Amino acid sequence: MKRSKFIKTWNSAKIAYIKKDRQNPIFFITNACGSPPKEASKLDGWPQRSVISDSKTSAGMDRTDDIKKAVYQVLKIGITHQSQRNYKTAIISNLPAYRHQDDYVRPFVNVLWGNEADIESINNKAFISREKLNYIFDYIITLDDTILRGDKI
Question: What's the rounded Cα separation, in Å, for the pair 56 and 42?
Fold first, then answer.
C-alpha cells in the first residue's frame, strides 16, 4: 500500500472511531465492537445475530479501566520516587483517549499533588512551594495527541 493511501485509510479509521460512525464500514475494524456491516454476513459468512464483544475492546486509552489504572500507577511511581527529581511519569499507549479524553484525561492534565509534610506556613496561610508539587503524570506518549510539557524526550 502506498504511504499516502495508508495515511488516508488511517485517518478515515480514526475519524470513524471517534465519531462512532457505523455507516462507515471501516468503523467495524477500529475497535471490534457492535454488529458488523451487512457485507460481512454476505461476503464473509458472519453468523446471523452475532456481534463482536465491546466490553473490553476499545482502542488504546479509550479503555477507561486502563486510564484509571494508569493514573494510579503514575501516582504510585510519583509518590515512591518523588524525592528523586530525575524521575518522570508517563502514560504510554498506542492511541490516545479519542472518545474519553474530555472525561478521563483533560481534567487531570494540569492537576498538581503534594504531601502534607511539605506544607509551609507564612502569615497564617498554608502552602506548598511549586518545587514540591508534582503533576499526576509528566507525559502522555501516544502515536497522536501527546502531552510532553515542552520537554524533549
Answer: 27
